Structures are given as structure tokens and as C-alpha cells.
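Justification of resources, computational component.

The compute hours requested in this renewal are based largely on the per-chain cost of generating structure records like the one below. Each record pairs the submitted sequence with a full C-alpha cell output. That output is archived, and it is also reused by downstream analysis tasks.
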Amino acid sequence: MRSDEAPPPDERPAEAAKSFDPLRFVKENTRVLAPPLVPELSLHLAEESLPIWLKTEEELHKANIDPPYWAFAWAGGQALARYVLDHPELVANKRVLDLGAGSGLVAIAVGRGGASAVMASDVDPLALATISLNAALNGVTLETTGLDLLAAPPERYDVITVGDLFYEAPLARRVLAFIDEASATGAEILVGDPRRSYFPVDRFEKLAEYSVPVTRQLEDAETKKTAIWRLKPAEA
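The structure output for this chain reads:
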């Protein structure tokens, strides 16, 4: 093959993935901003939704990049982070897993709350890069994992936090099964969710509610009523 010829299509994603730098991508496509409901924290966030969504769609064809959920402070995450910061006793000196951590907002709030160990979980490598950058930005030490934790029995944690993960039916079912099993082994489950389409509200008790400033580019309003929920024990 001549040097000016393009590689076969099936070779391009692998080559692009090798050259793709998640940390560079995050730094070049975000700004350091404070989430409206949690102004004491700073995060690498997208100022507008459309440009970064288009950018990740371009990269998607080259390196299998997922949509940029990590680039936004979603309503559930903001509310849950606010609640944890206002009630640090919930996580102080405890082992905490933040499931589907995205930007790392909730995991960072958990670290600020005095948790003895924080694990931020997300399967997106761009989310993991963002979490590392944001944790350093806020002076928080935590661990990250890109493993699909929902595919295996949960490890032992004192608390599991879940921000805005009930937006798709298959994912919602997997999350509920995972946290049910974790709860049965003693973990407290705290969820921030504005009653997304697949949120099983009957399985939770409401602890608090916030009016969260959001953007109409992502939501259907400028503020989103968002509650903090505790999982009830599963019925036998």
C-alpha cells in the first residue's frame, strides 16, 4: 500500500484509539466552571452542549468515543453533591462508591465530606480523565475504575452514590439490580434523580429536594426539581 493511501476502514478505529489522548481532549474542549448548586467546587465542563456533542460524534467514528455525558453537571449529580456536602456525616470515615461518576462531581463531594476511601466508577475513558483532572483541581484524593461494575456482584462499600443513571431502561434495570444486591450486604444507597423516565420511585424514600439550575440545551426547563432518594430494602 502506498504511503498516500488511506488504511482500510477497519484499521482506522484501532489506530485512532492509540493516538487519542483523553486528557488533552478534555482540556481543549472544556472550561473550569462552578456548578450552580455547588459553587464551592470547580469542574472541567462544557460551556455549550452542541459543540462538544458534535466534536465527540466526530471522534466516535475514529476512536469509539461515547456521548459527552461527563462534560455536564447534571441535575441529579448537582443535587446529590449538594446534599453530601451539607450532610458530611453520611460519608465521613466510610468507603464510598460513586457509580457512573461522569465528571466526578459527586465523588469529589464525597471526598470533601471526609470519606475514608472513594471509588469513582465510569466505563468512559473520557469520564475517567475528567474525574482525575477535577479531583486534582479540588484537592481530593480518589480512585477510579473503568470496569463495568454492573456486570459482577458488588464489592463491600458502606455507601453507594448514584447520580442521574435512570435515563435508559436497560441501564436502569442493571443499576437497580446492582444496588439492591449491595444494599442487601449493608451498603446505604443514596440517589440524586429528577424522576427520569425509568426511575423506580416506588423503591425509594425521598430525603430532600432541590431546584437545580440547568440549561435548556440539555433539559426541558431552566431549573429541574431534583430529589435525593434512599433505596428501600427489596421485598422478599
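The longest strand covers residues 204-213. Residues 75-231 form a domain with the Rossmann fold fold (CATH 3.40.50.150).
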